[in-house]
Amino acid sequence: MADQNIGYSTQSSLQYCILTIGSKLLSSKKEILVDFGQQNSSIITANELVIEETAKVKGFYALVDALNYMASIGWKVVHIMPYTATHDGVTTGPLRYLMERTGTL
After folding, report:
1. What separation in angstroms does the CA of 46 have from each of 39, 53, 96, 99?
2. What confidence score (pLDDT) does residue 5 get?
3. What SS3 string covers 30-64?
4. Could you tell me if residue 3 is inside a domain?
5. In a domain, 7, yes or no
6. Residue 6, domain member (yes or no)
7. Of all residues in the chain, what percent carry a pLDDT higher than 70?
8. What's the number of domains the chain is made of?
């Protein structure tokens, strides 16, 4: 019979975030945002350090720098989601990267 008292603190799980890369108005620099979800703190209880380290990506100005930094701290891209809007026949919008990493609950 399997032990039903397995503690969450030793279980490995996947964690997800969305990295959004947009353009700043009148600038060649990129705007980089990280979204962990609204319920993140109640779902993954021991992730304050993960969020703090990942949030440093906002300081980067280039897409490649941001993606390399995310990879260096354990995140990998699993899907690219274009967010598009059409204005005057031109389709634009930021790219969103669904990222995952293995973490501990």
Report:
1. 13, 13, 25, 19
2. 43
3. EEEEEECCCCHHHHCCCCHHHHHHHHHHHHCCCHH
4. no
5. no
6. no
7. 70
8. 1
